[in-house]
Amino acid sequence: MSFIPKSIEQAIEEFGKLPGIGMKSAERLTFYLLGKKNEDVERFGETIKKLKTGLRYCEKCQNFSTEAICGICNDPKRDTSVLCVVEDPLDLIALEKANTYRGLYHVLHGVISPVDGIGPDELKIVELIERVKKGGIKEIILALNPSLEGEATSAYILRYLKPVDIKITRIARGIPMGGDLNYADSQTLKKAFEGRGQY
Amino acid sequence: MSFIPKSIEQAIEEFGKLPGIGMKSAERLTFYLLGKKNEDVERFGETIKKLKTGLRYCEKCQNFSTEAICGICNDPKRDTSVLCVVEDPLDLIALEKANTYRGLYHVLHGVISPVDGIGPDELKIVELIERVKKGGIKEIILALNPSLEGEATSAYILRYLKPVDIKITRIARGIPMGGDLNYADSQTLKKAFEGRGQY
To answer: What is the pTM (predicted TM-score) of this model?
Structure first.
């Protein structure tokens, strides 16, 4: 595109690489920034540039952290006897925002997905098993997404943890709050019936 | 959000400021970048940081440019007797990609919109009129969007250019290619009939 300056072209290209952002959106975002103050655009760029600087995985829960042990694992108010296993840090954020769980986490950084070439070794499963074997944990809550890959990963983890004398649970599958039975798929309805609770 | 590192939080915040990107998308984009190589993330940041560096408006067409006169205005192969007036650089890009127009452009950088506090003085209308008065232009094509604001801006420009002895045209409004009469609004159908051409 010789009709636009190189810097604009490059920004469009970079935005276009992001997931869910097509060419048109990339153009729109770039020109939105062009209409912003220099300092705002530079701060945005600097923030992205430094995003990964100093980041590592927490040695305990494997979540992103700036320290060897993250804020949650270091929090004396958290219940260290419960471990919630999640697929990725976004799920952890969602759970933290829900403000309902006060135990610790373990982030797998993905699920087993042969199609994408992701096996158990690419995930933080060994770390989970070692962590559990160290003792002190009474319950493990598997909070993986109810997808094929999530179920397969749960099954894989279960195989290793079943021999250990620990309570293993999974989060409930059912109709989401505000949801509509009319629009729920048959699998969800099936799980909702199977998991029905008594008043 | 004390449970995530500051750099991640800031990136989510910055992404969230972009138009059409909500909190969830901002999180998803940030964690997408966290999964990318350091150098890729840094290049993205650097690109954004430098986006506006050295950019100015072309003295002739007012499009973004790194030089006083932009590539299009400087292109000896373009027809300097025709001027296409567009709202913003994105419209110019769309027209250039269509590869159908070989004249010059004039970018207004917006449309008259009293609701948003944008009057004629905020746009590059004075520059347009001065450019036309300098002579050499035989036709002006108004290619503003067929919105209320676009029409009002066209009307405003017309008032100043009518006295000048120049052919003034507008791009056709009608059914888009691949469109369906069934789904077209009545205004579009009206314009399509008014602008009908003979075989």
So the answer is: 0.83
